[in-house]
Amino acid sequence: MKVVITEKYGGAEVLKLKEIPKPQISNDEVLVKVVASSVNPYEIRIRRGEMKIMTGKKPPQVLGSDFAGVVEEIGSGVNNFKKGDEVFGMLDGLKGGSYAEYLKVKTGAISLKPTNLNFEEAASIPLVALTSYRSIFHIGKVRKGDNVLINGCTGGVGSSAVQIAKALGCTVAGVCSTKNIEFAKSLGVDNIIDYKKEDVTKLSVKYDLIFDTIGNIPFSKSKAILKPGKIYVTTNVTPAAMMIDPVLNIFRNKKAKIVMVSPNADDLNEIKKHIEAGKVKPQINTTFLLDQIQEAHYLSETGRVTGKIVLKIQ
Ligand SMILES: NC(=O)c1ccc[n+]([C@@H]2O[C@H](COP(=O)([O-])OP(=O)(O)OC[C@H]3O[C@@H](n4cnc5c(N)ncnc54)[C@H](OP(=O)(O)O)[C@@H]3O)[C@@H](O)[C@H]2O)c1
């Protein structure tokens, strides 16, 4: 099968197409014929060698987290999926493996593809929507009517976060740049803060949840616009925050938390319900073929993309 492999750490030029044998599944796994995947900034950081300590893996490595495809084989212990099922999901982003024509995966990481999405649309969802759902629903514990701030509301995570917070009945404020205001409005953002003109942490509005998808408004600044007893969540995982914030939170009235996404079929099923209800829609910026993977990474690492970059695999 065809895969994209990194043979050393480096720029997008280290991404190469290669033929390797199809994976062999265990009893508790299924083999998925991957129709589409998507690009996440994580994969760029792994490719550059910035996440060596966390991944514990070295090149050669097949990157990729998101996938949508068709179940082609099932392990003898699998009884909740069958051959031919159309599925979507994410692999553990740190291990990777979805920039490939086939992958093997445990059923706890997959869900049936939403009936109203094609494979490319479905592949744009899992990692970013699972990150948002975990941040807003599980960590943020929002309630209907809560006032939620999404910093970076136009990126992959941000565009899903806006829609998930709206689907959960929240009022959503979003921080974006002037050029992306119309896109933010199209996502359903109720109140837009243009970071080119205003510093959201200096404004008088207070929030029930702040979800910083960019990681550039730290808790030290954000707490000024957080209501008493409420939560700040960031995607910016630093060893210091992982170790220090849980201790400091014991003494804090307002809490600082980090999100670390992982595969979760239960959450993906909840997200699927919102998709099928028309409340969460895929936001595809550009679709590339697998052999255009270098271009896809170059585009992602500009940091300026709205929505998602999708890879069409077959
Ligand atoms: N911890 C986790 O589990 C986890 C999970 C997923 C992602 N992440 C991390 O979360 C970050 C975001 O991921 P992503 O997929 O959403 O990235 P992305 O799609 O590449 O984000 C690009 C978007 O960010 C916006 N942006 C850039 N600078 C901004 C700023 N200062 N203020 C507001 N918006 C800004 C850009 O809009 P403009 O051009 O208008 O600035 C663009 O729309 C990445 O660092 C990623 O590694 C972490």
Detail the topology: elements first, then pairings.
Elements: E1 2-6, E2 15-19, E3 29-39, H1 41-48, H2 52-55, E4 61-62, E5 66-74, E6 86-90, E7 102-106, E8 110-112, H3 119-123, H4 126-139, E9 147-151, H5 156-167, E10 171-176, H6 181-187, E11 191-194, E12 207-212, H7 219-222, E13 226-234, H8 239-251, E14 255-258, H9 265-276, E15 284-289, H10 293-300, E16 308-312
Parallel strand pairs: 9-10, 9-12, 10-11, 12-13, 13-14, 15-16
Antiparallel strand pairs: 1-2, 1-4, 3-5, 3-7, 3-16, 5-6, 6-8
Helix pairs in contact: 4-5
The structure holds NADP nicotinamide-adenine-dinucleotide phosphate.
NADP nicotinamide-adenine-dinucleotide phosphate binds at residues 40-42, 127-128, 131, 151-152, 154-158, 175-177, 180, 195, 213-214, 216, 235, 237, 259-261, 300, 303-306.
Name some characteristics of this structure.
2 domains; Quinone Oxidoreductase, Chain A, domain 1; Rossmann fold; alpha/beta; binds NADP nicotinamide-adenine-dinucleotide phosphate; 314 residues
